[in-house]
Design brief:
Elements lengths: L2 H11 L19 E6 L6 E7 L8 E7 L7 H15 L6 E8 L13 H4 L4 E5 L11 H8 L7 H15 L4 H16 L5 H8 L7 H39 L4 H8 L3 H10 L6 H10 L2
Parallel strand pairs: 3-4, 4-5
Antiparallel strand pairs: 1-2, 2-3
Helix pairs in contact: 1-6, 4-5, 5-6, 6-8, 8-10
């Protein structure tokens, strides 16, 4: 399930949702805007940044990380990214806080000692969704967030309940936004089901909704990316085969099959390595080392 995408949509629709998770939200929470930023360092990308209004006179910037898989270097990365961003934008903000959202405490990294001071401070907030309470007793937006963690066997019933509750409690256009988020969550959680099966599960029509169009377009994009990847792999395999044939003559069929079955990365590595090969034996050895 693409939880990063789900939470991005949640915070995009309702930035104040983050502050409902905090014991002391800022007084001007309604004025904050949500953004996703990349820090110009290798592999540094912050899930979400909540920016105070520009006329706030240097308010607090909130960094949010959604973590559903155990990562033993999560705090190293989160604090490095957040503090680097704060450093580079120091003139804009008075203070910073970090909010880390887990499905449960069991996902938190094991080694906490180097960061105990920060973790125990008022600047870092760890939120376990399974501790927020019964999903049907939560405010609607929080309930939608918790829906991402509900057991698969219970998810359809809870989703239908939240859809009915949305229709009763929320007027358009906000209700449409919540309904689309709920259906998005369920469509991602049950990707193996057809549109009709999802519709029957939720008693809703998906075909004309934006979420259905987005999911279909996402599938088309992934298909195009896979197609481009396959095309590049085929081109690389043909190129490497031409080099090998020119260097060693015809190769045995078994070797041709092995080479043509290599990944794009492996083919690129072989294209460089074969320049140093003296004979076919070295090609056989190179392939054996890579399984």
């Amino acid at each position: 399930m693409r939880r990063d995408s789900i939470f991005y949509k949640l915070f995009q629709q309702s930035p104040t949702l983050l502050f409902e998770l905090l014991p002391e939200p800022p007084a001007n929470a309604e004025a904050y805007r949500f953004d996703a930023v990349a820090v110009k360092e290798p592999r540094f990308e912050i899930d979400g940044v909540f920016l105070p209004p520009e006329d706030d006179g240097g308010g607090t910037v909130y960094f949010c990380e959604v973590q559903f898989q155990k990562d033993e270097r999560l705090y190293e990365r989160v604090f490095a990214e957040s503090l680097l961003y704060f450093y580079r934008n120091r003139d804009r903000f008075y203070n910073w806080q970090v909010v880390i959202i887990y499905p449960s405490g069991s996902v938190e990294q094991s080694q906490l000692h180097p960061y105990q001071g920060l973790l125990n401070s008022e600047q870092v907030h760890r939120v376990n969704l399974d501790e927020l309470g019964e999903i049907r007793q939560l405010p609607l937006w929080l309930a939608v967030m918790v829906l991402t963690t509900v057991a698969e066997s219970q998810a359809p019933n809870e989703a239908r309940y939240l859809l009915d509750r949305t229709r009763q409690e929320v007027s358009d256009p906000a209700s449409r936004a919540i309904i689309e988020l709920i259906t998005t969550i369920m469509a991602y959680r049950f990707e193996n089901l057809s549109r009709k099966e999802i519709e029957a599960m939720l008693d809703i029509t998906l075909k004309e909704t934006r979420v259905y169009r987005e999911i279909k377009e996402e599938g088309r994009q992934e298909g195009r990316q896979e197609g481009r990847q396959e095309g590049r792999q085929e081109e690389a395999a043909n190129f490497v085969m031409r080099l090998l044939t020119k260097r060693f003559g015809g190769l045995p069929p078994a070797l041709r099959v092995r080479v043509e079955g290599l990944s794009l990365e492996q083919l690129e590595a072989l294209g460089e390595a074969l320049l140093d090969f003296v004979g076919v034996d070295e090609l056989v050895e190179w392939l054996a080392e890579r399984g």
